[in-house]
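Example 3.2
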Amino acid sequence: MFRSLGIRGRLLLSFLAISMFAVFAGLAALYSFLEVGTVLNRISKADAPIAIASLELSRQAEKIVRAAPITLTVANLGQLEQIRTQNKVELERLHQLLMHLKENHSNEKLLATIEWGVSQLRGNLEELHNIVTRQLRLRRGQEGLINEFRNSYSEIEQQLTDSISEIDRGLERPQSSVEVSSLGSESNRLTDPRLFELTASRRAIQFANQNIANIQSLFLETQLIDQPRQLANLSVRGRQLMGALDKSVQTLKPELFNNLKFHLEKLRTFFDGSNSIFAHLSSEFDVKNKARDILNDNAWLSEELSGAVDEHVGIAKQNISQAIDKATATQKFSTLIISVVVLASIIFSTLIVWLYVGRNLIARLTELSVCMESVAEGDLRVDLPSTASTDEIGRMTKALTVFRDTAVEIEESNLREIGQARQRLMEAIESISEGFCYYDSDDKLVVANNRYRAIMYPGMEKEIVEGMKFEAVIRNAAKKGFIRDAEGRIEEWVAERMERHHNPGPPHVQERGTGMWVMVSERKTSDGGTVAVYSDITDLKQREEELAKKSNSMEQLSNQIAKYLSPQIYDSIFTGKKEVKVSSHRRKLTVFFSDIAGFTETAEQMESEDLTKLLNHYLTEMSQIANVHGATIDKYVGDAIVIFFGDPESRGVKEDALACVEMAIEMRKKMSELQEFWRASGIVKPLQCRIGINTGFCTVGNFGSEDRMDYTIIGSGVNLASRLESAATPGAILIAFETYALVNDKIKCTKLGQMEVRGIAHPVETYQVVDSYENLGREKERIREESPKFNLKIDIGDMSSDERKQAISVLNSALERMNSVDERLLENS
């Protein structure tokens, strides 16, 4: 019957038997835990709370007793009220602890003692507060009495001092001549009744003042009394000093005596009577003694409460000790039961493991495991255990046998398929036109097609075999001269190539020694190997070289063409923004015309070569300025220049007009520099340009035929700009009203009025440009004056202080010389 259960049933039955021992052990442990829990519950809910509450009550009482002396140090009723409030809070806390102790207390005698002590402590604190209140009131009365004494003393002392000062002035006052003559000698003055009276009065006041000083000393002694027995002696001395003061003031003049009488009465009340300083001090000593008695009583109450609490804590400790002893006995009994059960379970488990698990199950499973490991390692011919048993291990053996037979069939099938797949892979690799290779993680060649071998070792393909290291392959190729870049630097090139091989990046190109160009594309595989494709790009390289040559030719040609076109037109054509065809469109432009005044007369006086050089120099400088300002140069007509802003690129009508006028100002400035250069070259008469500017709608585009066209502008706006240029004086910039309206916030202009222009039906409002407001705001200034026999040129802004002083000196000297010449001419005439 036991064998018919199978391995699962037999193991389950064995484990159930072992589990019974665990149940017995658990019951014993549960009993022990319940007993210990009962003990701990009694300790935590009865004995421990009583002990803790008693200790907290004792600490709270001690805290109150320790804090009580602070009450005696308060300076005012406000502080006393704060301490009283704090004491109420602490007493309330003490009362709560007492109530908590009464809820858990069983010893009524100890509880009555503690409750009586708490009640007494509360009463003592209340009495202490009343005593301190009385003490503060006494101090306030003392302070009032002391202030009155100080005021009376100060008043008496002041009046006595004033009287002495008045008598001294009377003694020092000089006598009249009649009185001096009548007094005669010094002996007569001493017998003078008035002086004698003043001297006697002064002595009486000094005596009274001395008594007042003695009273002040006694007053200071009263402030230092710290023993009650000192009061009687000081009181007797005070009455004696007041008696002496009364006698001394009797000798004073009635007027002074009457003034001091009120203050003397105030001093007398300070030393005598129920409101004297001695009565106040006696009451204060009584209050302090009562407070000291209360504090001593509080200390005794604290000791009584501590004794009662200690007795209560001792009872709680005894109960806790008894409970712990009982819990310990219960634990020992439970431990014995658990030990017996554990020992029995160990013996029973050992028998099961040794007799059944070890000799039956483990041996068969070990044999089966060894066979499974052999099969897993690929040994499909291993001998398997017998399949006669019908239990689980027997069924596993049968399953392993079926698996082994199936694996043998699959292995034979896979070997056939792998061979076929490898053959197809090699055929596919050989069929591609690029070189292909794969190196494993050790950089050994695994597979490569013949194209790779032909590229690396042309004519020596058989030297590259599987298992060859990549470094050996490239090093041999470099040594044999197959790599153009490695010539003369083999080691350096090998190091660079190995770095690129280990860290593949974008494809790179190699020039082979045979004239072939190869693109190498490498990448890492997941197993750490490297796969690479070598592509022949020789034809592509040759086409690139041919294309580069043609591009250079086209670039040279375009650079030549660019010299005949404005930069904007050139860019728009070569970037494809505009088509080269006959077309036009309307747009608001700012048109610029300029020419050189008197150029024809100058040209007749110069040789053609010099004239050409001068004209080209002038046009070059003006063109550079125009290009900087973004202008479109339309054409050069002899010495005239036609420029416009707004096409093919525009920054806006206002910005285009402003750029055109600023360009004209800079050209005029540049013309001044050119005049100096031309004068140095031999041109006597300085050349000046005239400029006309107009803003308006024009037709702009390509005009001409399909074979020959010109990018230019036409329209009334162009004609007006030309007429303004003709009407301008040499060196002037003339603009129409619309241009002025666009630039007047940046450019200073002078209104010239209306003028009739040929080809324009109505008069045209014209303005002459002075300069930009920015330039006019600078401190830099130039002075230019020329005549056939006079030439003055001064750059004030560029001169230093010393240079300006020197120029002033030279000008003053010249002025003086000219004045002297005028004077001589007048004399001769």
